Amino acid sequence: MALEIISFLVFVSILFYVVTYPYNFKLNRKLKRVLGFSQVEKIIDTREKYLEFDNKELLEEFIIEEKYLESVHTSEKMRILILKPKVLKEKPLCLVLFHGIRDKAEDWIYKAKLRENYLSLKRRGIQRDIVFILPDSGYKGESWYTNFYHDKTHQYEEFFSKDLTKFIENEYPDSIKGIGGFSMGGYGALKIGLKNLEEYDIIGSFSGAISLIRMSINRRVMRIFRYLYVPRFLFNDVNKSHFVKVFSPWGYKILKNDPYSIIKVMDPKRLKGKKFYLSVGSEDKKPYLMLQQWIDVVGRAKKYNLDFKGKIYENEYHTWEYISKDIYNFLVFFINETKKRK
């Protein structure tokens, strides 16, 4: 009898999954709605805005420091790169940037062209001293900036929320802080930013995995399973075993780590004065469904009155090349919003 009930529930769930699958016509309808929001801008001209600098100029302008932090929350020393101007003329802003899965901190410097973008802004008169905090995620680039399920030696969210924050405050006391990230890093930045609003004024996600349940199964199916064990075969074919290792196969535990779900339960008073930046490429669809995730979260940000700016880049994919274009616009957003906090 029990086996028959379980088989029936699985059948119904699969049927529901097929019926509610995010087909293209549904995606296009939702995208059209989101593009009508006043907070959303479609970027047609996606050419790079940064100027070219030779290596000598870059070395003359910037210092790159490497540090390792020990933590009771992780079994490994956590590596951090600090990119900053050689001369700081004022109390600097601090911007934490999280990389994507299997990437590393250096990718912000060499793939996202962070130095070129920042220096181009200064050459054009948009000037604020910024110290860039570029951590490795840990766990060989696959930590998801998250506390692993049933694993006390890999509590990465604890490290980034507590130890990294303490380090920044000791090094640059009273600095205004922002946090952003690409892909897995966009997920980590939005989640940690939402959970630590007292620390971060500006929070950004660039093509981030910010509606996490879409990385597992259809979000409507997840509601059915939220208090049940989610069979592995329902997970998309994207790092299945590692996803379960980090987040657990239990629906309610996944939802607790899902930025899309976290926004719904946030106290609106805590969100007051916080600024959000959400971007994506228009072709960033499969296999990670980043466009769909962006649509989910932009819609929810609008519904719950987050103060946000959304950008969608025409014909851009899930690449560091796209990030090298978007980071310029985010830095403009970051600088302009922090000026209001002087």
From TrEMBL:
Residue spans crossing the bilayer: 6-23
InterPro entries: AB_hydrolase_fold, Esterase-like, Mycobacterial_A85_antigen
Domain of life: Bacteria
Cross-referenced Pfam families: Esterase (PF00756)
Gene3D superfamilies associated with the record: alpha/beta hydrolase
Keywords: Hydrolase, Membrane, Transmembrane, Transmembrane helix
UniProt-recorded Gene Ontology molecular function terms: hydrolase activity
Listed PANTHER family: DIACYLGLYCEROL ACYLTRANSFERASE_MYCOLYLTRANSFERASE AG85A, ENTEROCHELIN ESTERASE-RELATED
Protein name, per record: Alpha/beta hydrolase-fold protein
